[in-house]
Amino acid sequence: xxxxxxxxxxxxxxxxxxxxxxxxxxxxxxxxxxxxxxxxxxxxxxxxxxxxxxxxxxxxxxxxxxxxxxxxxxxxxxxxxxxxxxxxxxxxxxxxxxxxxxxxxxxxxxxxxxxxxxxxxxxxxxxxxxxxxxxxxxxxxxxxxxxxxxxxxxxxxxxxxxxxxxxxxxxxxxxxxxxxxxxxxxxxxxxxxxxxxxxxxxxxxxxxxxxxxxxxxxxxxxxxxxxxxxxxxxxxxxxxxxxxxxxxxxxxxxxxxxxxxxxxxxxxxxxxxxxxxxxxxxxxxxxxxxxxxxxxxxxxxxxxxxxxxxxxxxxxxxxxxxxxxxxxxxxxxxxxxxxxxxxxxxxxxxxxxxxxxxxxxxxxxxxxxxxxxxxxxxxxxxxxxxxxxxxxxxxxxxxxxxxxxxxxxxxxxxxxxxxxxxxxxxxxxxxxxxxxxxxxxxxxxxxxxxxxxxxxxxxxxxxxxxxxxxxxxxxxxxxxxxxxx
Length: 485
Description:
Strand order of the largest sheet: 3-4-5-6
Shape: globular
Largest sheet: 4 strands, antiparallel
C-alpha cells in the first residue's frame, strides 16, 4: 500500500502519536498472541541485532516490521513479504536491484529494505519517530483516505482499533480485521515486560509534555503501572463510591482518595493528595485508564473521569455497590455466559456466504435453523453452553428472532425489563449478563450481550452477526461499545 502525498513528522503529528500511545490499551484477550510473538522475536534477536549493527535501525523496530510484513518468516523479503527466491513483485517491486541476484539471503534483503526507505539515515528513534516511520513504511492510506480507522499496522490488538483494513494495495475493506500485532502494540508490551527501555519508555514518564529525549539519556520508568502494581486494599479500607462521576474541577475527600490510590499505584505525576482535581490529576487518571481494564477485560474509556468502572479498576470490585445485584447480573450463569461469548470473539462468516460458516452453522443449528440472521442464535448458543457447563436449564428463549425473543421473554414471569430511558437515568439497573435489544424498523432488530457498564451512559457488549461499525447483518462476533440510548 503506497501513497505519494508527502506526510512530514511535524510537532502536531509528534503530539498525536504520543497521545495515541498513551491512550492505547492492549486488548487483554490478545496478550497470549502478543507474548508468543515477542518470545519468537527474542529467539531470533541475534539476526535483528546484526541488521541493526549495519543500519543503525533499532532491532525491535526491525523485528516489528518483520512480524507485520512476513509474520516472522525468514524466507521472505522484509520489503513486503514476497519470497526470497526472486525479486519483489509487489510494491516496492524489483528489490533488491542488480547486481544482487536471487535467491537472496534474508540479511541482505532486509538491509536493502531499510535502506530503500532511507531508514538507515534516521538519527532519532524516539516514540513519535518509531510510529511515523512504521506508518510511512506501510503507507499513509489510512490517514489520507480512511481517517476513521487508526492504522492497524500500528494499533492492531489495542483499544484504538476495531476493524477496517487494506486487504491488498489500494483495496480497503471496512469489515476486514487485522490478525497481526500492530507495531505500537508490540512495543508497548515489550515495555511492560522490560525488554526495551529508554529512549522509548521514557516518553511516558512525564504526565505533562511527554517530551522526546535524546538517545542514551538515562531516565526512570515512572509510567502508568499495571493495575496489579499495588495490592487491592481490603474492602474495609475501600472508600465508598460517591454515586457520581468525579472529574476535573471537583474537590473534597473523594478526590483526595483517588489521588492517594494513584500515588500507591506509582502515578507520581498526580503530585500530592490535596483534594483538588486539577490537570495533573486528570492526566494521571488518563494514564491509569490507558493501562487498566473492566472486570470483563474490556479497555476503560480514557477520558480522565473517575466513574464507577474506573473506581472499580482502582479499588477492586468491592469499591462500587451494585443496587441491582440481586437481579441477574452477578450470578455464576451470567459470568459463564460472558466468558463463553468472549471466547467466540473473532468468529467470522465464510467470505461470500452470508449467515454461513462452520461456527455460525453451529449457532443456528442450536435453534434448528441454517443460513438465517444469527445475532440471537449466537446468544442462545452462549447461554446453552453456559447452562450445560453449570448443569442447569437454559433460561433463554429458543429462537433466532429478535422480535420473537423480545415478545416472549418479557412476558415470562421474573424477567427484568429495563427500558432505555430508565437505563439512562440509572445505569446501575443494567448488569453484565443482560441482553439488549434495539429496533431497526419493519419488525427487524439486533440483540447482543452486555458484558460491562461503562462511563457516561455506555455499555460494553459482545455481539454476533455484526461488524466493526456495529450494524446488524454483519459478518462475525465482535466486541462493541454502545450508548444506552
